[in-house]
Write a structure and sequence with these properties.
The complex is a heterodimer of chains A (257) and B (245). Chain A is globular. Chain A has 257 residues and is mostly helical. Helices cover 85% and strands 0% of the residues of chain A. Chain A folds into 2 domains: 31 residues, no CATH class; 222 residues, MetI-like (MetI-like fold, Orthogonal Bundle), CATH 1.10.3720. Chain B has a single domain, classed as MetI-like (MetI-like fold, Orthogonal Bundle). In chain B, 80% of the residues lie in helices and 0% in strands. The longest helix of chain B is centred in the C-terminal third of the chain and has 38 residues. Classes of the chains: A mainly alpha (257), B mainly alpha (245). The interface between A and B is large, with 52 and 52 residues.
């Protein structure tokens, strides 16, 4: 098993190494001008520079803080909205058409409008990120609540559960996988929205590093910032993926459906 | 019917507030001003031209990205070697938030039409690859066996077995790509504001503090997004009608 594992890892590194070799060789021979594609060691130096000067950390922390706040607000609001629509048909009938209509405009579309309303400060970033998270969380919560297996609901009725007990003991546990899938989508969307909003209106953060590099024609910094954005996104998504797998393992088979 | 209550209430409150001067009309212009914002400032043809330019860009990028995505996805799904060699790199690549590509793309392709189309294509590419690969991988073994029994040629296997089996997943990917491509079109127009386009219209409205123009742009954004979504749903339904329920 370890041999096959090693083989898989080795194969996975073939393409990146080939690309890296071509990139290094190409820039040595001057196939492409440095302004178009800086050599790998320049990118590496730029990354090390950002690291030692502390710029990388300050900007990454600013970005992570924004995502954390927007993500928390969006998840809470989306969960509450999805739960309300899922548990009550009248609420769904009143609210859903308006929700669907507003959800048609992507998070990015609201940015200029919000800029006129709330300015370009932190509230703008918070609202845009929260909006990006809210829609998938609300839709998945709604689907999860609606998808609770009927036999489970009947068991609750037979046991004469109160409304609160029904909610806490049956509906919420049974809808965990769906809600969590929504949260995972939400985090991906939050990360995309963060980069977009930081590119448009920001003076710090990872998106700003990108923009700054572009304006100074320092592509090595642009590529370094892209790498950090990619790795951070990858780590966050992987962490949620592990949590998701754990949660699903705890679900009894009957609930898994 | 009940679904109309809230939207009507919101719109009525909006009209009342902006007409009675409860809020600054610069922040909340009356509805009729929003709807006529296009011909008011720059002439109706301007907005029509913006819409057509955006749609053309959207479809060009969507087509390009989908085509590349189908080929790459099929390769990832059907060839174990390709999966081992390319799969992990693709998994890392797709985690780079799409907008992070914009500075690089605008440096490589300039700020013109090509850069925008490339960016839209890049956005459409990822969901098509993921879903096509998944669909191509999960052909039921029983179907493959039937194909072998019938002595299908390789081409017949592809057209009669692999493609129909993967079609639902592929269409899901293409549907997602259509939605993402529209989002990316607007994004590309925000960051590379040369030439006409709905995104450019919205940015222009913001720069001039013309809220009616911004709102008109947002409205068009939503309407087009909705229409594209409905078209994709209808196409999906038609193409999958042959499936047993």
């Amino acid at each position: 098993m370890t041999a096959r594992w090693l083989q898989r890892i080795a194969l996975a590194f073939v393409l990146p190494l080939v690309l890296l070799a071509a990139w290094t060789y190409g820039s040595r021979c001057g196939w492409v001008p440095e302004q178009i594609l800086p050599p790998p060691d320049a990118v590496w130096a730029s990354l090390a520079d950002l690291w030692t000067s502390g710029e990388l950390w300050t900007n990454a922390l600013v970005s992570l803080d924004r995502v954390a706040q927007g993500f928390a607000a969006g998840t809470a609001a989306g969960f509450a909205l999805g739960l309300a629509m899922g548990c009550s048909r009248p609420v769904e009938a009143y609210v859903r058409p308006l929700f669907t209509a507003l959800a048609q405009v992507p998070a990015l579309g609201w940015i200029p409008l919000l800029m006129l309303l709330v300015g370009i400060g932190e509230p703008l970033k918070l609202i845009v990120i929260a909006r990006a998270v809210l829609v998938p969380v609300a839709l998945n919560t709604l689907a999860g609540v609606r998808g609770v297996p009927l036999p489970l609901l009947e068991v609750g009725r037979v046991l004469r559960f109160s409304r609160a007990q029904m909610l806490l003991r049956i509906v919420l546990p049974a809808s965990v996988p769906s809600v969590f899938a929504g949260i995972r989508y939400g985090l991906t969307h939050a990360w995309i929205a963060l980069v977009a909003v930081e590119l448009i209106a920001s003076s710090e953060g990872l998106g700003y590093l990108l923009l700054w590099g572009r304006q100074m024609f320092q592509l090595d910094q642009v590529i370094a910032a892209m790498a950090v954005i990619g790795i951070t996104g990858f780590v966050m998504d992987a962490a949620l993926g592990v949590m998701e797998a754990r949660l699903q393992r705890r679900q009894p088979v009957a609930v898994r459906g | 019917m009940r679904g109309l209550v809230l939207p009507v209430l919101v719109l009525a409150a909006w009209e009342a507030a902006s007409h009675c001067g409860l809020v600054d009309p610069r922040l909340l212009p009356p509805l009729e001003r929003v709807l006529s914002a296009g011909d008011d400032v720059t002439g109706l043809r301007h907005v029509g031209g913006d819409l057509i330019a955006s749609l053309r860009r959207d479809l060009a990028g969507f087509g390009l990205g989908t085509l590349c995505g189908l080929v790459f996805g099929a390769l990832l799904g059907r060839s174990r070697m390709a999966r081992a060699l390319l799969g992990p790199s693709f998994d890392v690549f797709k985690q780079i938030a799409v907008f992070a590509w914009i500075p690089l793309i605008s440096m490589w392709c300039g700020a013109g039409e090509a850069a925008k189309v490339v960016f839209v294509a890049l956005t459409a590419f990822t969901p098509v690859v993921l879903n096509t690969a998944q669909g191509a991988r999960s052909t039921p073994p029983a179907l493959i066996e039937v194909g072998r029994l019938l002595r299908f040629t390789r081409a017949q296997m592809v057209w009669r077995v692999y493609l129909p089996a993967a079609l639902p997943a592929i269409l899901t990917g293409v549907h997602l790509a259509l939605i993402y491509a529209w989002l990316a079109t607007i994004g590309a127009e925000y960051f590379m504001t040369t030439g006409p386009g709905i995104g450019g219209l919205i940015i222009e409205g913001r720069d001039r503090f013309a809220m009616d123009l911004v709102m008109l742009g947002v409205l068009l954004l939503g309407v087009v997004g909705y229409a594209l979504n409905r078209i994709a749903e209808a196409a999906e339904y038609r193409l999958l009608r042959w499936r047993p329920a």
